[in-house]
Write a sequence for this structure.
C-alpha cells in the first residue's frame, strides 16, 4: 500500500507529451515521454501546429501508461498537476484541457505549474536531500534564466535572455552548419572534435541578463564570409568556438551571482543542462 501524497504531472509545453506519477514531490513512480523529435527533424525545428495535433493523439495513452507503470488508480491520486506556461499556446492547451477534464471527473484538485519552476523543481527529484537556497541556471531551447531560489516557494528571477535563448541559438547555428535537429546535441558532439580557434563575441551586458542573438549572427556572418571567399570551413572548430562563447557567459554569470549572494550551490535545469561543456 502506497503511503504519501500522489500527484499526476502532465507536460505538453512544446514537442513532447509527458506524464509522471510522483510521491511526496520527491519519489518518481513513473515517467512516460512521447517524443516528436523524428517528426520535426525534417522541418529543422518544432512546428507548433504539428506539435499540438500530436499531443492530442498521444496524451491519453501517455497518461494511461504513466498510471499503469506506477500501479496506481485515478482514485488514489491526491491531485493533478499540469504545465500552464510559458510554451507553445496550442500545445499547452492540449495538456491543460486534458488535465482540467481529468481533475473534474475524479474530483481532485488541479495544480497549474509554471514551466520554469518545473525545471527548477526537477532538481528535487534528482537528489532526495537537495534543498534551497541555491542559484539555478535554467537553460533550454526557449528560455535562459538565472534564478535565486531562496526557498521552495520563494523564487527570485535575477537575469533572463533579452533575445535568443541559448538552446535556440544552438539550433540556428546547427542548421547553418548543416547539422541535424535538435542542434544542441549535434553541436556538443562535433565540438569535441574541434578547438577554440575562432574569437566569437561574448555579450556580458551590464547586469545578469543574457543575449545570444549577436553571437548567433556573428557565427552566421563568419560562415557566409568563408563561403563567399572560398575558405574551407572547419565545422568542428566553429562548433567548439561557438559553444565556448555560450558556456563562458553562462558559467561566469552563475558563479558571479553565487559569490554575490554568498551561496555555495548551483543547480542546472532545462534541456541545455545536458550539454557536456556546461556540466564540466
Amino acid at each position: 500500500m502506497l503511503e504519501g501524497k500522489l500527484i499526476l504531472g502532465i507536460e505538453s509545453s512544446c514537442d513532447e507529451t509527458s506524464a509522471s506519477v510522483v510521491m511526496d514531490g520527491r519519489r518518481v513512480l513513473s515517467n512516460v515521454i512521447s517524443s516528436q523529435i523524428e517528426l520535426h527533424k525534417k522541418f529543422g525545428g518544432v512546428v507548433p501546429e504539428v506539435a499540438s495535433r500530436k499531443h492530442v493523439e498521444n496524451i491519453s495513452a501517455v497518461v494511461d501508461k504513466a498510471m499503469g507503470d506506477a500501479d496506481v488508480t485515478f482514485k488514489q491520486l491526491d491531485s493533478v498537476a499540469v504545465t500552464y506556461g510559458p510554451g507553445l499556446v496550442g500545445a499547452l492547451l492540449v495538456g491543460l484541457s486534458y488535465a482540467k477534464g481529468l481533475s473534474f471527473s475524479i474530483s481532485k484538485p488541479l495544480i497549474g505549474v509554471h514551466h520554469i519552476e518545473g525545471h527548477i523543481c526537477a532538481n528535487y527529484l534528482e537528489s532526495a536531500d537537495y534543498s534551497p537556497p541555491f542559484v539555478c541556471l535554467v537553460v533550454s531551447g526557449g528560455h535562459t534564466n538565472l534564478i535565486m531560489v531562496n526557498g521552495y516557494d520563494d523564487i527570485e528571477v535575477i537575469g533572463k535572455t533579452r533575445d535568443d535563448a541559448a538552446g535556440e541559438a544552438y539550433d540556428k547555428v546547427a542548421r547553418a552548419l548543416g547539422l541535424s535537429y535538435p542542434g544542441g546535441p549535434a553541436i556538443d558532439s562535433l565540438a569535441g572534435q574541434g578547438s577554440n580557434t575562432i574569437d566569437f563575441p561574448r555579450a556580458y551586458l551590464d547586469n545578469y541578463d543574457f543575449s545570444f542573438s549577436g553571437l548567433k549572427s556573428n557565427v552566421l556572418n563568419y560562415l557566409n564570409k568563408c563561403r563567399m571567399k572560398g575558405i574551407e570551413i572547419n565545422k568542428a572548430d566553429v562548433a567548439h568556438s561557438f559553444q565556448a562563447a555560450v558556456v563562458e557567459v553562462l558559467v561566469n554569470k552563475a558563479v558571479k551571482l553565487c559569490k554575490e549572494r554568498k551561496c555555495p550551490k548551483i543547480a542546472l535545469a532545462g534541456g541545455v543542462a545536458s550539454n557536456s561543456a556546461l556540466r564540466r
Q: What stands out?
A: The beta strands are 6-11, 16-23, 27-35, 79-85, 110-114, 134-139, 144-151, 154-160, 266-269. The mean pLDDT is 94.
